[in-house]
TrEMBL record:
<dbReference type="InterPro" id="IPR014756">
    <property type="entry name" value="Ig_E-set"/>
</dbReference>
<protein>
    <submittedName>
        <fullName>Esterase</fullName>
    </submittedName>
</protein>
<dbReference type="InterPro" id="IPR050583">
    <property type="entry name" value="Mycobacterial_A85_antigen"/>
</dbReference>
<keyword id="KW-0732">Signal</keyword>
<dbReference type="GO" id="GO:0016747">
    <property type="term" value="F:acyltransferase activity, transferring groups other than amino-acyl groups"/>
</dbReference>
<dbReference type="Pfam" id="PF00756">
    <property type="entry name" value="Esterase"/>
</dbReference>
<dbReference type="InterPro" id="IPR013783">
    <property type="entry name" value="Ig-like_fold"/>
</dbReference>
<feature type="signal peptide">
    <location>
        <begin position="1"/>
        <end position="28"/>
    </location>
</feature>
<dbReference type="InterPro" id="IPR000801">
    <property type="entry name" value="Esterase-like"/>
</dbReference>
<dbReference type="InterPro" id="IPR029058">
    <property type="entry name" value="AB_hydrolase_fold"/>
</dbReference>
Length: 397
């Protein structure tokens, strides 16, 4: 082969390789799209299908900026000549992830992100899509509505706030009555969580349209409660005693105030066979406390990353817990249509061990229940979305 022809072919090969590399880089850049959780028109954060997120912040006078996933990596950001800080964070599990920016040691929400109530304050969050999964997305199906209500509680001596999901067609057929799921948020979050972070309305819309779940009402109330005469009580000795007090007040508010209000205001089927309760984390513990003390009111029970059985050396004395409801497995099965417990496989060791321990104790005692593990997720909303997606189709069948 002539030297000039050989050089020409080599040059052409190099140019082709360079073109392929540039195309690959361009495709990788194009793979990042604005997150669905951004405020209107904001280009950042940007997310990729493999779970990476590009963060950006204009802070020309800052000297150090970090992107701070609450339950994930903390990444130092790089500054350009214009004072714009950027970083591409490593891949995280799909779902909604809380984050903030730490600017010169001070934590800030991202002005480009919508705010969500978590950690007892409003913070930023980025939605990382799960490829091929749309059960919690807005789809072309009939949609229910989320309504905001207030009810006057003698238990707390205050007006209380809640959201109520009504299924598609609720206003079209005024003769139809519906079962009710009472669904609770976790500690540090509030009654907005299941709608704004959990997408409960879209999950139910999609399940109902597919015929996989019964049309139902979903009531989401504030899990924080203080008794009307609490000022006369001595302060709790420790955090656990404080939680137990709050759980007791919440139990009374749900059973004495909220349920009667919902049954009077909405077209419910007001009996235990058509009433369920579930919750995540703290809300799961509240669910166990409320339902197992009131099996006259509930027959479906769910704990998402949260379940508590008090007493015994390991906190699992099934013979005496909740008045001995677990002492007779056959009697329990006759009274409870569903006991459901779930946890994420990557949750903190203590949380995973606690929920898994409840499951193990129930199984050894012969208590019929469903145990679910969300693969690859932490103490986070993707665990609880998946939990609801498994739990809701089992109700009222």
């Amino acid at each position: 082969m002539r030297p000039d022809l050989s050089r020409a072919l080599a040059t052409a090969g190099h140019l082709l390789l360079l073109g392929l590399l540039l195309a690959s880089v361009g495709h990788a850049q194009d793979a990042f799209v604005p997150a669905s959780t951004n405020v209107g028109g904001a280009e950042y954060p940007r997310v990729s299908e493999d779970g990476r997120v590009q963060f950006r912040l204009e802070a020309p006078e800052a000297t150090a900026v970090r992107a701070n996933y609450w339950s994930g990596p903390k990444e130092d950001m790089e500054r350009d000549a214009e004072g714009v800080w950027t970083v591409t964070a490593p891949a995280v599990a799909p779902g909604l992830h809380y984050y903030t920016f730490i600017v010169d040691g001070v934590e800030f929400a991202d002005p480009s992100s919508r705010s969500f109530y978590g950690g007892s304050r409003y913070v930023s969050a980025v939605e990382v899509p799960e490829p091929g999964v749309d059960y919690y997305a807005v789809r072309d199906v009939p949609h229910g509505q989320v309504r905001e209500v207030w009810y006057d509680s003698d238990v707390t001596g205050s007006w209380r706030h809640a959201f109520v999901y009504v299924p598609p067609g609720y206003d079209a057929d005024l003769d139809t009555r519906y079962p009710v799921l009472y669904l609770q948020h976790g500690g540090g979050e509030d009654e907005t969580g299941w709608v704004r972070q959990g997408n409960v309305n879209f999950i139910l819309d999609n399940l109902i349209e597919a015929g996989e779940a019964e049309p139902m009402l979903v009531v989401m109330a504030s899990g924080y409660a203080r008794r009307a005469d609490a000022a006369d009580e001595p302060p709790p000795a420790n955090r656990w005693e404080g939680l137990q007090r709050m759980f007791s007040v919440f139990e009374d508010d749900v059973t004495q105030e909220l349920i009667p209000f919902v049954d009077e205001t909405f077209r419910t089927i007001p009996d235990r066979e058509h009433r369920a309760m579930a919750g995540l984390s703290m809300g799961g513990m509240q669910t166990f406390h409320t339902t197992l003390n009131h099996l006259d009111l509930f027959s479906y029970i769910g704990g998402f990353s949260g379940a508590a059985i008090p007493g015994g050396a390991n906190g699992l004395d099934l013979a005496t817990a909740y008045g001995g409801v677990f002492a007779d497995p056959d009697a329990f099965a006759d009274r409870v249509n569903l006991l459901w417990i779930g946890i994420g496989t990557d949750e903190p060791e203590g949380m995973y061990a606690g929920v898994n321990g409840v499951h193990t104790a129930l199984a050894e005692a012969g208590i019929d229940h469903v145990y679910y593990e969300s693969p690859g997720t932490d103490h986070e909303w993707q665990t609880w979305r998946r939990s609801l997606h498994d739990f809701a189709p089992r109700l009222f069948r």
